[in-house]
Specification:
Largest sheet: none
Structural class: mainly alpha
Distance between the termini: 51 Å
Helix content: 55-70%
Strand content: under 5%
Order of helices and strands: HHH
Length: about 110
């Protein structure tokens, strides 16, 4: 990606983020404009690694959650990330096991 294209993409993302935040303030959807108690605060989690979203990603997800009146972010609650990480590990194990079986079957076919 050329430097000029990179700057255009960066400027576009910045403009979109600023417009979204301004709109959320105007429409009373900004999470930082409301009094939220700690026990009621839920972070959105990245299902691929189980970590919570941080910074502007977290803010944008919270704004979209408020705009669409979503109670839970895609069903990913505080308890859920570990489940997704475990599912990924199981999938990797199954893929590895499948590769081993495939290699063993290829070796046995070559011997025959």
């Amino acid at each position: 990606m050329s430097a000029n294209t990179y700057e255009q993409v960066r400027e576009s993302i910045t403009t979109n983020v600023v417009a979204t935040i301004a709109s959320s303030i105007k429409n009373q959807h900004a999470p930082f404009m409301r009094d939220i108690k700690a026990q009621n605060f839920e972070r959105a989690f990245n299902p691929t690694n189980g970590n919570s979203w941080e910074g502007l990603n977290s803010l944008m997800l919270d704004i979209k959650k408020a705009e669409k009146n979503i109670q839970v972010m895609n069903g990913l609650q505080l308890k859920m990330p570990h489940f997704w990480v475990l599912q990924q590990r199981k999938l990797k194990q199954l893929k590895t096991l499948g590769k081993i079986r495939l290699l063993k079957s290829n070796i046995s076919l070559k011997k025959s």
